Amino acid sequence: MDAKEFASAYGEAFGPAAGLPLLFWYSDGPVRAVPKVEGCFFKALAEAREGSAVSLNAANIGCGGGKFYTGFSPMPEFVPQFVSLKERYKRTPEMVLEFIAALDLRPAPKAWLEFVRADVAETFDGAEGVLFFAAPDALAGLVTWATFDNNAADAVASPFGSGCSSVVAQAVQENRNGGRRCFLGLFDPSVRPWVEPDVLSFVVPMSRFREMCGMMRASCLFGTHAWDKVRERINKMNLWKKEERRWCLPAAERVEWPTSGLSRSWRVRDSKCMPWQALRWGRWSAACMLRDTSKHSRSGCIRSINTRFSVWSILR
Description:
This protein is an alpha+beta fold. The chain is built from ten helices and nine strands.
């Protein structure tokens, strides 16, 4: 199964709402270099998820930890104290050093680290791993797929680590060793602001991914009643998320609701999203003051149906 065949099969198994995973590998030259990313480089991976390749190296990764865990630099001296005493992710600096030693980190084999969406990549050749960004329902499918032909207690592991450690360092080490473990990640509080609140990472090293591709259609992901119901929910939920994102406007794009037909005007709040559940169940009373929704369907309204509220047309 090549990259494009996998992308097609994955879309069939999970539906379009799940989003395709990213392949990552090291290369001698960039596919698409991005400007320097200050702080966590997961900021830049949003572009890769949308279909634009992201090429990272020692120059455009602004985070010292990010450079270290991708193999582009030695460990900065401050890391053990910072992780323990500043971030308080480990009790002592010695525990941090113990964790790092177990990773067996080695220098990057080439100058660039590429992140490319599966349908854009031409081949799996040379890839270190496959990175899925997944909410709980999609994770259920991924974990079940990963354990379909593997009874090991650590078939899916969730070791401590930063975002870049749990995604890149763990997969590179596992792939180098020919291992079969998959990794849940993005539990690090420092990386959480750069992904959706209900999303974790699921990383499969290429040493395991090729096996899993051969088992994909034999697993529950194809032709089972239980998974069909979950896949349907994954794709229905995405409709709510699309509407939720339309509330998340930068400050420069804040707008006021029309005052005609409203008991008061209401302004979209400073780049903060209204939770889709709140919209769905009508818990944001300030957004539910329309007296006549039919008059404002083109500028944005929330229609009440049996005390539940559905987003119909927002800021069009």
